[in-house]
Amino acid sequence: MSSLLVGFGLGLFVAAQIGPVSLLIVRSVVRGNFRIGLAMAAAVALVDLGYAALGLLGVARALEAADGVAVALGFVGAAVLVALGLRTMWIGFRARFGLETQEEVGTPGRAFATAFAATALNPLTIALWTAAAPAAVSGGSQSSFASAALLVGVGLGTLTWYTCFAGAIALARRRIGPRLLAAIDIGAGAGIFGFGAYLGYRTARS
């Protein structure tokens, strides 16, 4: 199997796991449109590709040796997710009482930046891609071409999954009323907050 297909499958598999970014895309697309989701999909794909590239350069071993860096990233990532979760829940509560402002819906640029930060600062994403990418390139095909093909596949796989995911949410959005929209905000925010709290707890215990 070519490195491109391996990377594509790996990108699809990792993206399909439910996490804080999936919840962010759900609530952002139902509040905005498909372009919002597409911008977020591009941001996640870019981060995944970047960390996979760092993994091929041997960054995983450097992170394992620098315990303090890993712990700092863990707490920063947890704080970002907790803040995003609280903000999302707050918007949901405001919407229930008609206090939402137009600025809170967001733009593709703002959505890109939010998804980029949430993904890039997630230590689980860093650990996964810096370890998975080197393992995906077999010893017999560790050439520059194979590595490049793997990275392209990872980016395309992640982008494909989240684009289709955002498209499905955009189609379902037509049937979502204001009350359900507020409930989605609150539920998604609670989920993101939970991921952040768990990450902080896990980092503190490590």
Tell me what you see in this structure.
By secondary structure, this protein is mostly helical. The protein has 9 helices and no strands. It has helices at residues 3-15, 20-31, 34-56, 59-65, 67-96, 108-120, 123-136, 144-172, 178-205. The model is unreliable at 97-105 (pLDDT under 50).
State the separation between the terminal residues, measured CA to CA.
Answer: 37 Å
Give the radius of gyration.
Answer: 18 Å
Biggest β-sheet: count, sense, barrel?
Answer: none
Number of H/I helices? 9
How do the helices and strands follow one another from N- to C-terminus?
A: HHHHHHHHH
**What class, by secondary structure content?**
mainly alpha
Shape: globular
Uncertain regions spanning at least 5 consecutive residues: 97-105
Mean pLDDT: 77
Which percent band covers the strand fraction?
under 5%
Number of strands: 0
Instruction: Give the helix level as a range of percent.
Output: over 70%
Short summary:
This protein is mainly alpha-helical. It is built from nine helices and no strands.
Mind sketching the topology for me?
Layout: H1 3-15, H2 20-31, H3 34-56, H4 59-65, H5 67-96, H6 108-120, H7 123-136, H8 144-172, H9 178-205
Keywords:
single chain, 206 residues, mainly alpha, 9 helices
